[in-house]
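Pipeline run #58 for the internal structure catalog. This entry was flagged by the ingest filter as a single-chain record with no existing model, so it goes straight to prediction. Upstream metadata was stripped on purpose; only the residue string is passed forward. Reviewer on rotation: M.T. Logging verbosity set to normal.
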Amino acid sequence: MKTRTLLIFALLIAVFAGWTGLTMGDDAGKEVDFEKIVCPVSKKQVNKDATVEHEDCIVYFCCNNCAAAFKKDVQDKKKFLARANHQKVATGQVKQTKCPKSFQGAKASTALEVNGVDVTFCCNNCRGWAEGLAKSADDVEDQIATLFGPNVFGKAFEVIGK
């Protein structure tokens, strides 16, 4: 009887978690506030219908012209890649697995908010290095370019579910 009661209870919890959108652990399945997500090309608010699939993720753009510019740029200069990678984390498609400076384990106590995304580090020295990348409190472009750029992204972040 106890086993049956526990199974029913576990089933109810699973149903409730799915119904309310709750998840255990990672941000997978979280509701994304698209009003806060910006186009990696224009930096304007995205349109959920203007997308490009990139490295097992969906990248959102404000319009199809920006989507086309991104496709062309990814094969050439990679000017918009860091902002696209930042967006992948912001939309919960990618999670951080290591410190973006040392590639060691990261600690939640070192979190630094970078344009709406929490980035964690192995120590406060690495966090301080990342803080110093921003020219001002309002200018996070160098932080995004360094912390989410191609030299770091594949080593410190991974697609959720892979």
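catalog note: Residues 2-20 form the longest helix (19 residues).
catalog note: Residues 4-28 have pLDDT under 50 and may be disordered.
status: ready for reviewer M.T.
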